[in-house]
Amino acid sequence: MPNNKLNNGIVDDLKTRGSSEPLTVTTFLLEPERRKDHRPPRDPDKALVAARLGLYTEWLPRISSIAVLYTIGGKLNDPTMDGKSLTLCFFQHTFGIEEATKLIQSVEWDRHAAEFRHWYS
């Protein structure tokens, strides 16, 4: 069953994959909603061990996504730069563009995106 430790590994792996995407200057993770199930195991000994270790079933949204976003030009702090870039890592409950669009739009672009100089400059 999925638990906090396993899910932390899944989240870390998504961040690692996102940071290795082409055109990535900076990576930002939208922290996933974690649904916890505190139902104890039926075996009393396992329930005691699980309680002492803080183990419980924890669920992440089923779909992980990486979006590589960038703009060319626009308002830049450094005039020698060409644009801004942000690789966004997130989890979503349903497959499709509607939920992904809402998640992407929730990010403060100017706060998280990094300026970059294009390779041909």
Largest sheet: 4 strands, mixed
DSSP E strands, number: 6
Number of domains: 1
- Overall shape: it is elongated
H/E series? HEEHEEEHHE
User: Which structural category fits the helices and strands?
Assistant: alpha+beta
Could you report the average pLDDT, rounded to the nearest whole number?
86
- What is the helix content? 25-40%
| Count of alpha/pi helices | 4
C-alpha termini separation: 50 Å
Percent strand: 25-35%
The gyration radius over C-alpha positions equals 19 Å
Poorly predicted regions: none
Walk me through the structure.
By secondary structure, the chain is an alpha+beta fold. Helices cover 32% and strands 26% of the residues. The chain contains 4 helices and 6 strands, in the order H-E-E-H-E-E-E-H-H-E. The strands form 2 sheets. Strands 1, 4, 5 and 6 form a 4-stranded mixed β-sheet that branches. The mean pLDDT is 86.
Summary tags:
121 residues, alpha+beta, 26% strand
Write the layout of secondary structure elements.
Layout: H1 4-19, E1 27-29, E2 35-37, H2 44-53, E3 57-59, E4 63-72, E5 83-92, H3 97-105, H4 109-112, E6 114-116
Parallel strand pairs: 1-5
Antiparallel strand pairs: 2-3, 4-5, 5-6
